[in-house]
Every structure is written in C-alpha cells, then in structure tokens.
Amino acid sequence: MADTSFNNMTSLARALSQPKLDLIEPNDVFTTRAAQVYPCRRRKLSSCNSVESLETLTPPAAEARVLVINTGGTIGMTLHDNVLAPKANAFVQSLRKLPILHDETYAQQTCLYNYYGSENTLVLPKPTSHCDHLSHGMSKNNKRIVYTILEYSPLLDSSNMTTDDWGRIGKDIEKNYENYDGFVILHGTDTMAYTASALSFMCEHLGKPIILTGAQVPIYEMRNDGRGNLLGALLIAGQFVIPEVCLYFYNKLYRGNRVTKVDAGSFNAFSSPNLAPLATAEVDVTINWDTVWRANTTAKFQVSTELNRNVGLLRLFPGITAATVRAFLQPPMEGVVLETYGSGNAPDNRPDLLEELKKATDSGVIIINCTQCLRGTVSTSYATGKVLIDAGLIAGGDMTPEAALSKLSYVLAKKELDLEAKKKLMSQNLRGEMSADLAGAKLCLSDSRFIQVIAKSLSISCKEELEAIRDALTPPLACAAAKIGDIEALEALKDMGSNLCLGDYDGRTPLHIAACEGHLKLVQYLLSHGATVYAKDRYGDTPLCNAVRFRHKEVVKLLRKTGAHFSRDKLEEAGTELCSLAASGDLEGLEIWSLAGADLNRPGYDGQTAIEVAQAVGKKETVAFLVQLMSKNPKKVFGEFNTCDEYDDDDDESGVIEFTATPSRA
Ligand SMILES: NC(=O)C[C@H](N)C(=O)O
Predict the structure, then answer these.
(1) pTM of the full predicted structure?
(2) Which residue's CA lies nearest to atom 3 of ligand 1?
(3) Same domain assignment for residues 519 and 577
(4) 84 in contact with ligand 1, CB cutoff 6 A
(5) Beta strand pairing status for 83-86 and 77-80?
C-alpha cells in the first residue's frame, strides 16, 4: 500500500533516500547503494552481481546519452581477398576491448547492460588528468558519456549509399530523438559530405547534435584515425547542444552542409572552404558559438524523408557541346547544379549553350549556379556571369555542389509548393549552407554603447579583450533580463552579438530563468532567437523541468510544442511524484506533469500508480480527474528504440505571440 504521508516534496525526497529494501537483495551492499544512486535502475539491479568499489559511481543525471548509428565505411572494415570491405557484428565487440572507448568496470558497477537490455551500450572512461577531463569520457561538468550502437545491415561502403539510406538514417534519428542527447553517424568518407548535406535539410527544427564521422583507416589497424574520430564525435555529441548536422574529422567539427572530401590519402580528408570549423578539439575543445546555426523556431523536430531523385550535377568544361547539355536537361530532370567557372561564369560567346539552358529553365527545370572553385562565391561581376542570370539560373552563392544538389532534392520534393516558391527557397539560406550577404548587417562591437561604457571603465580598447568581457558578462546579464521579463534588454544584448543560449556559472540559461518565472512571451522570444530547450543546468534540469516545478502551464505547453521532453530517468521517476501528488489531491500538479509528458500509469517506487494511491486514500475527485486526464491524453511507455509519446496539443494557445525568426548567424 502506498505511503500516503508523502504530501510534499521534502518528505518525498527523504523517503526516496531510504529505499525500500524489499525491492532489492538485502545482503548485497552494492545493490543497495546502487539503488540509491540509481533509483530508476532499481528494478533491474537484483540480477547485477558487481562487488566493485562504489566510490566511482556517477549519478545518472551526470550521464549523457548518445545513439551511434553505424552505416558502414572504412572505420569498421577489414581486409578480405586484399580489399577492404565492411564486417558485420564485429564493431561493438572491438570497441569493448578498447579502454579509451569503453569502461567495463563502470558498466558492471552501474548495471549498464542490464539496464539497457543489450550489450550494445558502452560507456566512455573517466578522465585521469586535466587534459583527459576535457578530451576523454567526461566533460568539464563531469558527465559520463553512455552510447548505444545501432548497426545497420548490410553495412555499406558509402559509394553504395542512396537517398533511401539517407531516409533510413533520418527516420531512426526521429524515432529515437527524445531518448538521446545527441547522435553520431558512422559513415564512409567517400559520400559523407552528400549525406551530411542531405540530413541537414531533411532534419527540420533540429535541436540536438547529429555528428557524422568515419575514418580513412579502420579502427582495427595499429595506426588509425577511426578511434580518435569516434571519440571526438561522441564527446561533442554528448557534451554540447550544437543543434546542427555536423561532420567531425581530424580534430575538427564542421557544419555538415559546408564540407567536401578533398584528400583520399590523408587523415585530414575534409575541408570546409567557405566556413570556419564550428569547433576544434586541440588541447581544449573550443566551440565557435557565434557560428553555430540555430533553427530559431518553436516548431517540433521532424524529419522529411521525401526526396526528389530527378536531380543532377553538370560540370562545364571548355568545348562542352550543346548536345551534351540538351541531353542532360531532358525530362525527367527537374533540378540541376551547374558547376561553372570562377565566380559563376560561363561562355557568353556560346548562344547555342545558353539557349539550351534557357529552354530548360523556361520549361520549369531549376538550375543552380555553383562555382567549380573549392573556395569563393558566385557573383555577377563578369559579363560571363550575368548571361546565366539571363538564362534563368539561380545563384548558389558559396554553396558546395553537394549541398546544392541535396537541397534541390529536398526542395523539389515539397509537393505543397509551386515552382516559384521552390525557386525562392533555393535562393534562401535554409540551414547555414550559404553565407548571407553581411554587408552592413554585422554590428561592430564598438557600436554598442553598453560595451563602450564597460570598456572605458576598465580601460580596455582592444577588440579581443572587449569580446572576452562581452562573453563573460552577457550570460548573467541575459539571465537577469529574463528574470524580469525584459525583452528589450535581451534584444539589446543580442544586437551586441551576445549569444542568448549561453548559461551562467550554474549552466542556467535565460530560457531556464524565463521558464521559472513563467514569462511566456519571453520564452517565445528566446525560442525564436536560438535558445535551446535541451540546455541542462548543473543539476541536470532543463527549462521544462523548471516550468513544471513552478507550475507555469502555458510555458510547459510551448516548450513541449517545441520538442522539450523529460529525460528517460525523469520519466521513470515521475511515477513516485505522481503518487505523491495524487495522495495530497493536488490536481494542478497532476495536470502539469501530464502536460509535461509524464505517463500517468507509471507506478511509483512501491509499484502503485497515482490512481491506485488516490483510490486508497479516498480522493474521489482526484480519481475522476486522473481518469479524465488519461482519456484526454493517452501516453505510451518509453523504450529503447521506441518513439516517445506525442503531446496532445489541441488546447487554446491564445497569448502566444509569434516573433519573426531572423537567422542571426552566417
Ligand atoms: N574512408 C572511407 O570510408 C572510404 C570508403 N570507401 C567509404 O566511403 O565507405
């Protein structure tokens, strides 16, 4: 029977710190202790027999979870008949034997395999030195990185990849989105730039990192780049909320739709010619937050797997015949990336060629002008460039051909759009794949009166020092503005070039604060300007946890609509909280937990559900309320590789104001 004296958070917390011993083996000291540290793993601990020291146990709030999707590529290949080919069902076993990629002791101590129900879940080791801290299994805030490997069958050399494979990856991410903090895609290097570009468009309203990586030499070889690449990708995916599809290779994190493979024989195989890396993993991991692209949306993450295959790449060369161009542009071709010379030029003394191009664009084929040069952008500085505009081509800016092609494939598949709308999308920057024209747009730091005043008072004049001060001061200032609901102050900070997603000394972001205070408009503003619902403070709390705690219903609804969700552990622990609320007849509390995605059928620590507790203590009104809530919003249970529940969002949302999202980054 439920202990119905749990009518406030304090007594509940105290009760939880004294776990019911009948649930676990009484003589197994380890299990008792592990159950205290891991209440959510309690039910499965009885079959775990580890007797190792317990001092190293890390609370689960300090674990980050990453899903690794292994599609193939050299990283997991072995030699057969003197050629490299993927080897199935060998990768996880090999990683398990590599101490830099797996800590078996920790896995045993924390019953990792039992908990996840499979041996495909591994955990990065604990750091042993300062450098390790920043570059191995724990981040600065001491998070262990637990990763689960989903291996595809068959494993592919990336030369064999098709758009269907992109769709499969996208769907698997979508299905598992709420169960993980980040995603790593193991992929062959040959077509990795195409897959990264395609995923960047297919993943709409992305809020978590998706990092592609692979290797030039298999991890099984003595000298290889696979181990370092995988480790770096895992660390970044688990530690940082970089809401982009990225590519990690040779100590650099790139925006996925900016890269191209430039070297078949070097570990340094990729280049991002028109955009500096998002991060570098040297002695320290340095994130270039100013460059990180954000969805700036309140819409929920989704993957669009509809792709148009009638697209192609055509490279101009001196002497190309009109017949070749005509043949290439025949139906069913719907979109073409024309790789032109220099800054987007083509012969202006070849009316036969230009006529073929014009005929195709007139008949509805979208042709994008991209340069053959590795670096630089198309422009209209030459007569030989202007003729292509006259022929109806769309300027592709500094997009890579890989990005332009996959963007075409994505945009052309949008059945609800007419030709003009598709052309418009093609010329716009959708995911940071092309540089905006920044002339006059970027505010100079010294334009900011605020920074000038501070600089003066500190006698500082050099730009780097000013930037350092700005970066140090603005997170707490933004939090202070969020506390009092001051959107204007936030706007001013943003105009100074401040990143409104950064946290204060406790990792609390302006969105955390606004969620605590219930400032709905400010929450809306922050979400429209790059704030992430997945930010965790030092206690592991997200803005959603804060909004629930302070019972701001409308904020909870908006955060849920944007994709916020409780962690798997929190959902498992919700049962006990719901029982406590039911015992005290706290209808408001029950409703807000339900809105936040808690499963009302989840049992509490003693196996009873909220409704059973309410019945036991004779709270009829609470029982009726729970029945009504459950019928309105039935929930599914979380499981490994299961889709999470959807929030039923048919409630009135009046009061929510849409702010226009202006992508703030290049
Ligand atoms: N390094 C590699 O991964 C090359 C391999 N052929 C692939 O793309 O799958």
Answers:
(1) 0.74
(2) 188
(3) no
(4) no
(5) antiparallel
Domain closes at, from 261, 286, 303:
303
Residue 71: CB within 6 Å of ligand 1?
no
Catalytic residue set: 189
Both 379 and 455 in one domain: the answer is no
Same structural domain, 500 and 586? no
- Residue 130, number of CB atoms within 10 A of its CB: 9
Q: Quote the number of domains for the chain.
A: 4
Which residues lie across from 557 on neighbouring strands? none
Residue 448 beta carbon below 6 angstroms from any ligand 1 atom: no
pLDDT in tens, 176-235: 999 999 999 999 999 999 999 999 999 999 999 999 999 999 999 999 999 999 999 999
Question: Which tens digits make up the pLDDT trace of 353-396?
Answer: 999 999 999 999 999 999 999 999 998 788 899 999 999 999 99
Cα 73 to averaged position of ligand 1 atoms, centre (Å): 5
| Whether 464 and 520 share a structural domain | yes
Q: Are 234 and 184 in contact (CB under 8 A)?
A: yes
Q: List Cβ neighbours of 17 (8 Å cut-off, separation of 6 or more).
A: 36
Cβ 190 under 6 angstroms from ligand 1? yes
Q: Which atom of ligand 1 is nearest to the CA of 159?
A: 8
CA distance 120 to 92: 6
Give the domain extent around 574.
566-633
**Is the CB–ligand 1 distance for residue 216 below 6 Å?**
yes
Do residues 378 and 434 touch, judged by C-beta distance below 8 A? no
CA of 358 from ligand 1 middle (Å) equals 38
Q: What is the CATH number of the domain that holds 579?
A: 1.25.40.20
Residue 439: is its pLDDT beyond 70?
Answer: no
Q: What angle do CA 484, 490, 491 make, to 5 degrees?
A: 140
